[in-house]
Specification:
Blueprint: E1 4-9, E2 29-30, E3 33-34, H1 35-45, E4 50-55, H2 59-69, E5 75-79, H3 85-94, E6 101-106, E7 109-111, H4 115-125, E8 129-139, E9 144-147, E10 153-157, E11 162-175, H5 176-180, H6 190-200, E12 208-212, E13 217-219, H7 223-232
Parallel strand pairs: 1-4, 1-6, 4-5, 8-12
Antiparallel strand pairs: 2-3, 6-11, 7-13, 8-11, 9-10
Helix pairs in contact: 3-6
């Protein structure tokens, strides 16, 4: 079972500047609590026992929040001295992992996948990376992910209006050793420079899989969904 999680919490939160400007996105107040409260609760309930926080922008606030509100939490910090992109942040965080596989998630997204099923699928496929894919309808905010019959990722499609499709929910299972052997640069986008390059620009069959998880999903990265979360997470 996967017991470790990397939480990406180093972003600038540019799209939320009109709503919050004084705290990192993961600490944005949602229904009276920092968003990170809900994410940690879900991950702990899912069996995650150790956390690696990938931090950068206004990291002191995240550190203080953890000290004051989660003194018993088993965690370590992975601090970016300069912006590394999502891929560079993950790569740096993986150096602090102590298990074979790790869950990676965004600090501004709550996607309540079944971690035990994700782990079983990831292990069975011997995958380097497994994406959790959320079915969506009538949307234009996200690109679409297509799968082959064996559940390897076939293609990433550009953002446009879709009647229905599978989106990348931003929650992954990664094999630590396999990923660190990929010989990737220090600074890169996990989505654009790793996933999409691996799938869309190479002819070789990848070791990147997708598992469909039609579970609760909220991404507070834009003001509309930030407001939506105020209502939904209050419950």
């Amino acid at each position: 079972m996967i017991k470790e999680a990397i939480i990406l919490a180093g972003g600038f939160g540019t799209r939320l500047q009109s709503v919050i400007s004084d705290v990192p996105k993961c600490l944005a107040p949602v229904a009276g609590k920092p968003f990170l409260h809900y994410l940690l609760y879900f991950l702990k309930e899912s069996g995650i026992e150790r956390f690696i926080f990938s931090i950068g922008f206004k990291h002191e606030q995240i550190e203080q929040y953890l000290i004051e509100n989660h003194p018993q939490l088993n965690y370590t910090l992975s601090l970016e001295n300069k912006p590394l992109g999502t891929g560079g942040a993950i790569q740096l965080g993986l150096l602090k992992c102590s298990h074979k596989n790790v869950v990676v998630c965004n600090g501004d997204t709550l996607y309540k996948v079944d971690i035990s099923l994700l782990n079983k699928f990831h292990e069975t496929k011997k995958a380097t990376c497994t994406l959790c894919l959320k079915p969506m309808y009538n949307f234009d905010r996200y690109g679409v992910v297509e799968l082959n019959e064996d559940k390897t990722v076939r293609a990433f499609k550009e953002k446009q209006f879709y009647i229905s499709g599978l989106i990348n929910g931003g929650l992954y299972a990664l094999n630590v050793e396999k990923f660190l052997k990929e010989n990737l640069p220090e600074i890169f986008s996990f989505e654009k420079n790793y996933l999409e390059v691996k799938i869309n620009t190479t002819n070789k069959k990848s070791n990147i899989y997708g598992i469909i998880a039609d579970k609760y999903f909220i991404d507070i990265g834009i003001p509309e969904d930030f407001q939506k979360a105020q209502i939904e997470l209050k419950k």
